[in-house]
């Protein structure tokens, strides 16, 4: 059994672009040969089977990610908070159409209290359900507005009325006590929470 | 000494030799099926995330099950390499 040294690539025998006719052979351009050798040795080659295996790994990752989502890897707002926070000592001081900004249940969760009528107060988290920008109350337009992506929410229900948001703003439960308005828990906008409460 | 004539050619449904083109076609077909299934998994992941954030946990779990079954299909297509088809008998005897 004879062993042969590895064959070296010396470029094509003929270069049609430079041929002066008659298929005559030209010596390969050393720079061109060096460039082709560099390209052949540095390019990552993926076979069809290798590509299939990469897809298999990707599919496994997607399946794991889906299980993680279902298991609750991402935080979502629930009706878990039960702290009582005084929003306004004197509810009558808030004009109809007026708003009071506060935080609930933690200092990092902005919210807003709205007085929509003489005896109608509502409060919502002002974290947009689209991409978590802060939602603003616009009295002149009578809506809750997210300036980041033009999202609009109904002040009556917190439901998304226009723009990219789909989910409603989380509601905050209120209680009137001795003329004051208190936040007493996070809302019941999530379907399962409604079912649990009933 | 005259050799015996070969037996008749096998019927079309008898296993034959894999050609290079045939094997490549089978591989590309598997890749196309797997890509389609993976696209379905991507869709399921987005819908599951939306369902979870909306509080529809049961729907998110059904979608996770769908994704796991999809992965099982993909794994079968990736790792269960079909055995090469056998040579026809009349050739194997030679």
Summarize the structure.
With 198 residues, chain A is α+β, with helices and mostly antiparallel strands.
By secondary-structure content and strand pairing, the structural class of chain B works out as mainly alpha
Major beta sheet of chain B, specifics?
Answer: none
Question: Gyration radius of chain B, to the nearest Å?
Answer: 23 Å
Distance between the termini of chain B: 16 Å
Outline the biggest β-sheet of chain A. Answer: 4 strands, antiparallel
Oligomer description: heterodimer
Uncertain segments of chain B are: none
The tally of beta strands of chain B, per DSSP, is 0
- In one word, what is the shape of chain B? rod-shaped
Rg from Cα of chain A:
33 Å
Strand content of chain B: under 5%
Superfamily (CATH H level) name of the largest domain in chain A: Rieske [2Fe-2S] iron-sulphur domain
Give a count of the beta strands of chain A, DSSP E runs of length 2 or more.
10
- Largest interface, C-beta within 8 A: A-B, 28 and 36 residues
CATH topology of the largest domain in chain A: Rieske Iron-sulfur Protein
The overall number of domains of chain A is 2
The amount of beta strand of chain A, in percent, is: 15-25%
Q: Could you describe the 3D structure shown?
A:
The complex is a heterodimer of chains A (198) and B (94). Chain A is of the alpha+beta class and 198 residues long. Chain A has two domains: 16-70, no CATH class; 85-197, Rieske Iron-sulfur Protein, CATH 2.102.10.10. Helices cover 22% and strands 25% of the residues of chain A. Chain A contains three helices and ten strands. Chain A has a four-stranded antiparallel sheet with strand order 5-6-7-8, with no helix packed on it. A three-stranded antiparallel sheet of chain A has the order 1-10-9, with no helix packed on it. In chain A, strand 9 (172-177) and strand 10 form a beta hairpin. Chain A is elongated. By secondary structure, chain B is an all-alpha fold. Chain B has a domain at 35-82. Helix content of chain B is 65%, strand content 0%. Chain B has three helices and no strands. In chain B, helix 1 runs antiparallel to helix 2 (57-79). Chain B is rod-shaped, with a radius of gyration of 23 Å. The mean pLDDT of chain B is 81. Classes of the chains: A alpha+beta (198), B mainly alpha (94). The A-B interface holds A 48-49, 51-53, 55-56, 58-60, 62-63, 65-67, 69-70, 72, 74, 76, 78, 129, 166-167, 190-193 and B 24, 27-28, 30-31, 34-35, 37-38, 41-42, 44-45, 48-50, 52-57, 60-61, 63-64, 66-68, 70-71, 74-75, 77-79.
């Amino acid at each position: 059994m004879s062993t042969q040294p590895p064959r070296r690539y010396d470029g094509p025998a003929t270069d049609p672009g430079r041929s002066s006719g008659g298929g005559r052979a030209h010596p390969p351009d050393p720079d061109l040969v060096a460039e082709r050798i560099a390209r052949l040795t540095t390019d990552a080659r993926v076979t069809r089977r290798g590509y299939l295996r990469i897809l298999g790994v990707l599919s496994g990752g997607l399946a794991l990610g889906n299980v993680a989502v279902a298991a609750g890897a991402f935080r979502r707002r629930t009706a878990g908070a039960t702290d009582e926070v005084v929003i306004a000592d004197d509810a009558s001081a808030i004009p109809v159409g007026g708003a009071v900004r506060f935080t609930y249940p933690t200092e990092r969760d902005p919210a807003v209290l709205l007085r929509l009528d003489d005896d109608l107060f509502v409060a919502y988290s002002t974290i947009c359900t689209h991409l978590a920008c802060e939602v603003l109350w616009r009295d002149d337009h009578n809506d809750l507005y997210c300036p980041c992506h033009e999202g609009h929410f109904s002040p009556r229900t917190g439901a998304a009325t226009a723009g990219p948001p789909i989910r409603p703003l989380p509601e905050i439960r209120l209680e009137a006590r001795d003329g004051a308005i208190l936040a007493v828990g996070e809302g019941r906008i999530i379907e399962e929470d409604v079912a649990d409460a009933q | 000494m005259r050799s015996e004539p070969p037996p008749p050619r096998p019927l079309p449904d008898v296993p034959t030799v894999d050609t290079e083109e045939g094997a490549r076609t089978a591989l590309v077909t598997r890749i196309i099926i797997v890509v389609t299934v993976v696209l379905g998994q991507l869709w399921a992941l987005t819908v599951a995330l939306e369902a979870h954030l909306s509080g529809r946990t049961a729907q998110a779990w059904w979608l996770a099950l769908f994704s796991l079954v999809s992965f099982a299909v993909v794994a079968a297509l990736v790792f269960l390499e079909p055995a090469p088809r056998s040579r026809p008998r009349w050739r194997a005897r030679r």
